[in-house]
Design goal:
Order of helices and strands: EEHEHEHHHEEEHEHEEHHHHHHHHHH
Number of domains: 2
CATH topology of the largest domain: Hypothetical Protein Tm841, Chain: A,domain 3
Distance between the termini: 50 Å
Strand order of the largest sheet: 7-6-5-10-8-9
Number of helices: 17
CATH class of the largest domain: Alpha Beta
Mean pLDDT: 84
Radius of gyration: 24 Å
Low-confidence stretches: 125-136, 309-314, 330-335, 394-406
Number of strands: 10
Length: about 550
């Protein structure tokens, strides 16, 4: 944080399992800080807030969030951005999508892959005044100018992966299966399957297939390369390859580009953004001019960047305590009266239902990618479950009085990751100072609106929103005079369960499942199933 005062701070992050990304790129000449989630899960909103507050309190002249294009990352970083803007901080976000796998445009956009590392490097804020984001920050440019420059740079990249094996989230099975003589082209960094399965071939032939796919003009996500172009090449180990194998791939890539009369101005070979133990490689190409190349060459103290760091190595690192958030006033709920007992029972039942579904949700999620949906909901359930010495938040009584569950929202922001637990914070706002049933319909509306704004999904995209939106329609009955809470909730449960079942017949339009062929998704969406289960537990 020492160099943050008076300069734009650069923050990035995402799930763990991609080491050395992202913490390896903290240092002078690269990132100010990063926020890490659990394995393949987006960092919690509360953690992102702590990072932004840290650089803001250190005197940064604004904060730029560099985010890979995944639904959970966009959603959680976006919600943190909104919260900090409400506190008066100057925060902007750039979403990086450099995937060149898909021949047709996806609603979810291009995935953020290893090219994100080059954006980290090209936005360094300690250089001479070149016309790039980091140098603009050093020269005193506005945050808006930096955002425009970085957004332009992200369009000059392409990345494609190839692997001989899937990966396994700790405690889970491999995300897909490959025969001993097969390899997968166009897969992501969370274990999701690719766009084409091919027979094993020589390194030269495999790399040629990758370059041809990346530069094919009929491919909607291709990188336009022309004779005379200058590129930076990144040969990235996805986790399970040896240095010898990487060097063989790098040699083949250089030869393949030279045959296209493309100049490889720089070649970076190593582990930059991995996917646990996946035995694969990705190629990243970034079109560069002389100014951008000088940024890539600039010195940095980041330990994971492949140059000698101009700083001594130390076994001990100074730790900066996270700024403490001011305690919010939470409407108290007694654990001795009927309301407290009701809250205890409801919360215990909901948490028990989620814990009991952990394996089922993981199994459903495995078809769409990383297979951790059950783990994510179980983590939230364990954190929210009533414990000795802690009162549960109040819940609505059948006769119509209720209290805002802000304690639940704060806890979910701080502990859980991925998309689902981001709902409580926006939902809690309509419940402040209100004690009527329509407030709960307003809360559902607010939570869904926030998810759609940052997640990009809509009803019909085969996500948890299908169940949530179906339930929302039924919960509008709470706005009627004399509404019966249990009757309305019963209708909402039936609607959510029917919507969850209907997702098995949908083609995914958002989230990680959207990268998988609909022919492989023959079961309901795990998020939609979880929503229906929570509503059923509430009703019971």
């Amino acid at each position: 944080l020492e160099g943050s005062k008076g300069r734009v701070a650069l923050l990035s992050g995402g799930g763990s399992g991609h080491e050395p990304a992202h913490a390896g790129y903290i240092g002078k000449g690269m990132l100010t800080g990063v926020v890490a989630g659990t394995v393949f899960a987006s960092p919690a909103v509360g953690s992102i807030l702590a990072a932004i507050r840290a650089v803001t309190q250190a005197g940064a002249a604004g904060t730029l969030l560099i985010v890979k294009n995944y639904t959970g990352d966009r959603l959680n970083f976006g919600l943190a951005l909104e919260r900090m803007r409400a506190e008066g901080a100057d925060v902007q976000m750039v979403v990086v999508g450099d995937d060149s796998a898909f021949a047709t445009q996806k609603k979810a956009g291009r995935r953020g892959l290893c090219g994100t590392v080059l954006i980290h490097k090209a936005t360094l804020p300690q250089l001479c005044p070149l016309q790039v984001a980091g140098a603009l920050a050093e020269a005193g440019a506005s945050l808006e100018e930096i955002v425009r420059t970085v957004s332009s740079a992200t369009k000059a990249m392409g990345t494609l992966g190839l692997s001989l094996s899937p990966c396994s989230v700790p405690g889970s099975k491999p995300t897909f299966q490959l025969a001993h003589d097969e390899m997968e082209l166009g897969l992501g960094i969370h274990g999701e399957a690719g766009v084409r399965r091919m027979k094993v071939m020589s390194a030269d032939a495999a790399v040629e297939a990758m370059l041809a796919h990346m530069t094919d003009p009929s491919n909607a996500s291709h990188l336009p390369l022309h004779p005379g172009s200058s590129v930076v090449l990144v040969v990235n180990n996805l986790g399970g390859l040896s240095c010898l194998e990487l060097a063989i791939v790098a040699g083949a890539a250089v030869r393949g580009l030279e045959s296209r009369r493309v100049q490889v101005s720089r070649a970076l070979v190593g582990s930059f953004m991995t996917a646990l133990e996946m035995a694969g490689v990705s190629l990243t190409l970034m079109l560069v001019d002389e100014e951008l190349l000088r940024l890539i060459d600039a010195k940095t103290t980041a330990m994971a960047w492949p140059n000698l760091a101009a700083a001594p190595a130390r076994s001990q690192r100074e730790e900066v305590p996270a700024p403490k958030e001011e305690k919010e006033m939470v409407q108290p709920a007694t654990s001795t009266g009927p309301g407290g007992q009701r809250a205890q029972l409801v919360l215990e039942h909901v948490c028990s239902a989620l814990l009991g579904m952990e394996d089922k949700l993981n199994e459903l999620d495995r078809a769409a990618g990383d297979g951790d949906c059950g783990h994510t909901h179980a983590r939230a359930a364990r954190d929210l479950a009533p414990r000795k010495g802690r009162d549960p938040p109040a819940v609505p009584r059948a006769e119509g009085s209720l209290a805002a569950p802000r304690g639940v929202g704060t806890s979910a922001l701080g502990e859980a990751g991925a998309s689902a637990p981001a709902i409580p914070a926006p939902s809690a706002q309509p419940l402040r100072g209100r004690s009527d049933l329509p407030a709960w319909a307003d809360a559902m509306d607010a939570g869904i609106e926030a998810m759609q704004r940052y997640g990009g999904a809509a009803p019909g995209d085969r996500t948890m929103l299908d169940s949530l939106c179906a339930a929302r329609e039924a919960l509008q009955g709470l706005r009627a005079a004399g509404a019966n809470l249990l009757q309305v909730l019963s209708t909402a449960v039936q609607s959510a369960e029917a919507a969850a079942e209907a997702t098995k017949h949908m083609a995914a339009g958002a989230g990680r499942a959207s990268y998988i062929s609909s022919a492989r998704l023959l079961q309901p969406d795990p998020g939609a199933v979880a929503v229906a289960a929570v509503l059923r537990a509430l009703l019971e």
